[in-house]
Amino acid sequence: MTPPPLLVLGVGNPSRGDDALAPLLLERAAVELAPALARGELELLTDFQLQIEHALDLVGRTRVLFVDASVRAAAPFEVLRVTPARDASATTHALSPAAVLATHAAVAGQPPEAWLLAIRGERFELGEGLSDAARENLAAAVQHLAALVTGSTAWAAVGREVVGRP
Question: How many domains does the chain have?
Fold first, then answer.
């Protein structure tokens, strides 16, 4: 079976304050984009962190959108182009989006077009709730994701290319 052309892969820990941004975005996207999901246009996948195994989730895709919370992104979010690159994360337990792409290239060939939706977060302590600012940034990111999927917004980098951690 052919996988949906777009994979939205969110990473974050719901128990660590604003690190919950990506899992929450995927929860909302499941409702907001239900028709596109039903038509097989995209797949939503969430995990605590990127692992080497995620390289195989990219097989057969046209495009992947990594979603993560970031203290360095401009509010409410940035959309950044990701290219394959081996970085320091390739030797750690969790990988960067660029390292996942490089792993895919090494084991399965040319990776799909890749982007990062970096949602601005402020608080990441264990047991914290979502900050008010992150809640607003999340709402804007959900709208932007819906616009990307429906084609009413172009896929274009805002800011910089991502090689390591966002």
Answer: 1
CATH number at residue 82: 3.40.50.1450
Q: Do the beta carbons of residue 120 and residue 73 sit within 8 Å?
A: yes
pLDDT of residue 166: 45
**What global pTM score does this model have?**
0.91
| HEC assignment per residue over 2-35 | CCCCEEEEEECCCCCHHHHHHHHHHHHHHHHCHH
Within a domain: 166: no
DSSP 75: S
Regions of the chain with pLDDT less than 50? 160-166
- Sheet strands side by side (includes 42-47): 42-47, 6-11, 63-70, 113-120, 77-82
pLDDT tens digits, 78-88: 999 999 988 76
Is residue 91 domain-resident?
Answer: yes
Flag whether 34 is in a domain.
Answer: yes
Structural domain containing residue 128? 6-150
